[in-house]
Structures are given as C-alpha cells and as structure tokens.
Amino acid sequence: VSEREKRGTHVLQAVVEVVADHGLDGVSMRTVAAAAGISLAQVQYYFRSKDELLAAAFQHVGAGVEQRAADVDTAGHPRDVLRRLLRLWLPLNEARARDARVWVAFTAASATSAALRTINLAIDHDMRSWFAEFLRRAQLSGHLDAGLDPEVEGALLLALVDGLVLQALACPTLDDGVALVTTSMDVYLARLFINHGRVH
Amino acid sequence: VSEREKRGTHVLQAVVEVVADHGLDGVSMRTVAAAAGISLAQVQYYFRSKDELLAAAFQHVGAGVEQRAADVDTAGHPRDVLRRLLRLWLPLNEARARDARVWVAFTAASATSAALRTINLAIDHDMRSWFAEFLRRAQLSGHLDAGLDPEVEGALLLALVDGLVLQALACPTLDDGVALVTTSMDVYLARLFINHGRVH
C-alpha cells in the first residue's frame, strides 16, 4: 500500500464517520476535509468531486464487509461458521451499529444514483457468491441437504442478514435489536441445516 | 375524510413522487409545492416544516404498506396467501419499484432522525405482529408446525421481504430482480411450511 493510498483511505474513513453521524446529506468536500483534519485542497487532490468521493467510500465500506467474510474462522459445523459470520455484520454493538447505518445510507442512495447502484450490485453479487460457494462445500461435506440450490440459499442468507440489520437499527435500544435479531438468525440457521448431514 | 385531509394526502403523495425521483435530498417545501401543483403557502398551511412533512409522508407510506396486508385475499393455503402478500411488496413492476425506493429512502433516513425512527419502528412492529398473528392462525388450522414461534417467524418473514426488496432494487434490470427474488421467496415459503399440516 502506497503512502497515497493510505492517505486516500484516511479520507474515505472520514466520509464514513460523517455518514454515520449525519447521513449522506452531511457529506461535502468541506465536511469531509474537516472530519479528516486536512484541507479542502488535500481532499480535492484525492477526489475530484463529491460523487467520486461517495463512490470510493461505498467501495471502501463494501470491501470491509467482504473482508469480514474472508477473515471468518471456518472451523467447525457450517451452521456455526455462518452464525459467527452473520454476527459480525449485525449491529450487536455501537461500532457495528455505526457500520450498519452507513451501509443503509449508501444502499438507499443507490436507488437514485447509477454509480452507487453499480457498486451496490457488485457487493450483493460477491456476498451471494460467497454464501453459495460456502453452502456448496457444506453439501459436499454432507452437512447440508444436497437437494438445496446454493445460489438461491445464498440470496436468502443475504436477504436475511440485510433485513435483520434494518430491523435491529429500527429498535429503540441496541439491546432490543440484539435480542430480536440473534434469536431470529439462530432459528433460521437451525432450520436450514436441520436433519441434514452426518455428524463429523 | 374531510376536504382538508384529502388535500393533505395530495401533498404527501407529492412528497412520495419527489423522493422516488430524487431521494430525500430532493425534498423541500418548495419542490413538494411544485410537484403538488400548489403554492408554497398552501404546503405550509398543512405542514409547518420539512421535518413535519417528511414524518407525515413516511406515515402515509407505512399506512399504504399495511393496507396491502389488510386487503390481501386470505383464501387458500397460508403459504399461498403469504406468497400473494409478499409479491405485493416486492418490486415486481415499475410502480412497485418506485414504492420500494421510497421505502428504502425513509428507512435509511431513520438512522439519523429520531422522529423517522419512531415511525419506522411502529411500521416494523405492526408488520411483525401481522405476520405473527397470521402464522398463529396457520398453526391452529394445522397448516404450520405448532413447534414454531410465531413472533420469531414473523421477524424472519419481515427480514426476508425487506432483504429481497434491497437485492431486487440493486439489480441492473427489473426482470433480473423479479427472477432473483420470486425464486428465493418461493423456496423460503416452501421450507417454512414443508411436511407440516394436513391438507384441507
């Protein structure tokens, strides 16, 4: 990673902080410069426009989400691996709730921005593929019913985690959200894997 | 419904159109007046501020969503009733995609607005309760495994439909989205009801 890239990442992290606190409405070249503790000219050195800045920040957020999947401990029953992974995305603490709010803000903006929608689609596609590949391996190891379609199940897992994130964020307190979504997730994963596969 | 309420609803529908085309960023007392074909003073007669306007518009959108559940034809197997209902919310045509974009915009704004979050929570709560009550009746009629927790299954159904809406909106074309989410939904509902209940 070059010095330029490192500084660019510092600016993108500042965008994320601004979005978490004020939503996408709060983002301007000026507010990001202030949050990053650098000058407006320095922000403009890395990103020519607000649109370019937002696109890069969304890609940065998406890369973080995908990194968590790549880093997850894959030891044990696939149900437990998925449980660990989904818990990394759900807003189970203040830091994760901030991440989740930022993700929702960018997802919503994708509805009216073609550039952001392209990035959103790529993230969704990568996530579904990751889930599908994981479930395919679970079928090969005999942990998951071979009759299931891994692509469809991948789309369902993505829908589940996205939808649970939204419900958790709507809750009045973090604890209410945690109780609601962890129970739901556990029931879903138990049903997905129930009565299938030999014990290893 | 009084004349005043009818005119108020006309203004709220104008907010929805502005949000569908330009996102929440595009909403101001002025743009809404223009979209509604009335004067700024007339908008101000109904709503004192942009915040009040947005809160009323979100409530209007939520009421529309809940009305679709109240209106759904409940004849037949509960699996088919749910299938019909979820199809009313998914972005399966341009009009529904507009509705879905508006819902996503308000949901995202709830992350940074306490007033909108309160409304969001109330809508989520009503939807989960509707699903839970529906599933409870499906258990009583022997169509659904009595061992399932209707509250948890209600939260899962809400997560499913919310998550599938997001995935469909991210797709490059409406048709791609339709194919992705209808298949996923059918697989989910088949598994929820599989091997349970007597045939009526």
Put simply, the count of helices of chain A is: 9
Summarize the biggest pleated sheet of chain A. Answer: none
**What is the 3D form of chain A?**
elongated
Question: What is the element string of chain A, with H for helices and E for strands?
Answer: HHHHHHHHH
As a percent range, the share of strand residues of chain A is under 5%
State the oligomer: homodimer
**Unreliable stretches covering 5 or more consecutive residues of chain A:** none
Number of strands of chain A: 0
Estimated helix fraction of chain A: over 70%
The overall pLDDT average of chain A reads 91
Structural class of the secondary structure composition of chain A? mainly alpha
Most extensive chain interface and residues per partner = A-B, 43 and 43 residues
Radius of gyration of chain A using CA atoms only: 19 Å
Distance from N terminus to C terminus of chain A (CA atoms, Å) equals 41 Å
